[in-house]
Amino acid sequence: MFTGTIKNLGMIVDVRPLSRGLKFCIISSLKLEVGTSISCSGVCMTVVAVNVFYFKVEAWGEALCLSGLIGLQRFDTVNLEEPITLNTPLHGNIINGHSKSIVVIKDSHVYDDSIVLVIECPKWISDETTSPSSINLDGVSLTIARSGGEVPWCIINLLYNIEYYIKVFQY
C-alpha cells in the first residue's frame, strides 16, 4: 500500500525485454532490498536485484497494458514511493498500486493558484467516481473535483508546488 505522496524520482538506465514483460534498471537514492515493494509511477512492483547505485524491477502483462510503463525508455524518469508501514504518517490517500485503466489528459489550464486537468476516462470509471474522491495519476494521488456527464471525464485541481513531482505520460 502507498499514499501517492511522491518523495523520490528515479531514472531508467536500462530496459530489457523478458518473455512476457520488461525488466527496468532504475537509478535512485533509495536504499532498497530484494523482495521490497516499490511504486514505480503508480505501479506496485517487487525489487528483484539491487546494488549501491540502482535497483531492478520486472513488469508483466496487465501492469504494462494499464500503465505508462510500456513506453518507458532509457533516461526517462519515474515517480518512486516506498510502501507504507505501521509507522508511516498517512498523508494523501491510500492506494494499492494496481492500475485499472489508462486515462488521457484532454485539457489543462491555470485557475487562480492551481492547475486544472481535464481527464478523459472509460465510462465505467466515471460512472463509479464520486466527487470528491481520488485518482492515482502516474503514482501521484490526486483529488477529483468533479466528474460525470454523457462524456466520461473528471476534473482535478493541482496546486503549483505539486507540479514538480508529477511527470505526465503522453499517450
Write the layout of secondary structure elements.
Elements: E1 8-18, E2 21-27, E3 37-40, E4 43-50, E5 54-60, H1 61-65, E6 77-81, E7 104-111, E8 114-120, H2 123-128, E9 133-137, E10 140-147, E11 153-159
Antiparallel strand pairs: 1-2, 1-6, 2-5, 3-4, 3-6, 4-5, 7-8, 8-11, 9-10, 10-11
GO molecular function, one term: riboflavin synthase activity
Catalytic activity: 2 6,7-dimethyl-8-(1-D-ribityl)lumazine + H(+) = 5-amino-6-(D-ribitylamino)uracil + riboflavin
Protein name: Riboflavin synthase
Overview of this structure, please?
With 171 residues, the protein is mainly β. The chain has two domains: 8-81, Elongation Factor Tu (Ef-tu), domain 3, CATH 2.40.30; 104-165, Elongation Factor Tu (Ef-tu), domain 3. Helix content is 6%, strand content 45%. It has two helices and eleven strands; from the N terminus they run βββββαβββαβββ. A six-stranded antiparallel β-barrel has the order 1-2-5-4-3-6. Strands 7-8-11-10-9 form a five-stranded antiparallel β-sheet. A hairpin with a 2-residue loop joins strand 3 and strand 4. The longest helix has 6 residues, at 123-128. The model is unreliable at 160-171 (pLDDT under 50). It catalyses: 2 6,7-dimethyl-8-(1-D-ribityl)lumazine + H(+) = 5-amino-6-(D-ribitylamino)uracil + riboflavin. One of its GO terms (molecular function) is riboflavin synthase activity. InterPro entries: ATP_synth_asu-like_sf, Lumazine-bd, Lumazine-bd_dom, Riboflavin_synthase-like_b-brl. Pfam families: Lum_binding (PF00677). Lumazine-binding repeats lie at residues 1-93, 94-171.
